[in-house]
Amino acid sequence: MRTFLFNHIALSVKDVDESIAFYQKVLHLKEIENTSSNSKTRWLSLGESKQLHIIPRPDFEVKTNKAVHFALTTSDIDSFVSYLKELKIEYSDWLGTANKDYIRKDGIKQVYFQDPNGYWIEVNNDI
User: Fold this and answer.
1) Is the pLDDT of residue 14 over 90?
2) Pfam families, alphabetically (predicted)?
């Protein structure tokens, strides 16, 4: 039987520098070397050998909804939500209520927000 492990997420973005700055500022992701090519695609570490690849597509328009997202977890979601407020980044619960978190049936707290290109990101405390 084959087994698979998660490796990376790739996002097409209009402005690579703006996206890298956003992910470094908001999620404190560290930039790592793009070992696959000499392209303008840049990589960020998600930890544990997982990566976020930021691919330049200046004419690309993101059309997605909250159901299409990636999720990260933190042990201190309350301080992260405070940080979003400090940065004036709008966030919402699953239903779309502005500046509100959501508590799932299993007790996990989560919030959703968007990056500069419109991609949805969930942060939760499912540690």
Assistant:
1) yes
2) Glyoxalase (PF00903)
Give the separation between CA 46 and CA 61, rounded to whole angstroms.
Answer: 24
Q: CB count, 10 Å around CB of 32?
A: 13
22 phi and psi angles, rounded to 5 deg? -60, -50
Whole-angstrom Cα Rg for the chain: 15
Q: Mind listing the domains of the chain with CATH numbers?
A: 8-56 (3.10.180.10), 69-124 (3.10.180.10)
Residue in 85, 122, 81, 79 with CA at minimum distance from that of residue 104:
122
Q: What is the pLDDT of residues 32-43, one digit of tens each?
A: 999 999 999 999
**DSSP SS3 for 124:** strand
**What would the pLDDT profile of 48-63 be if each residue is shown by its tens digit?**
999 999 999 999 888 8
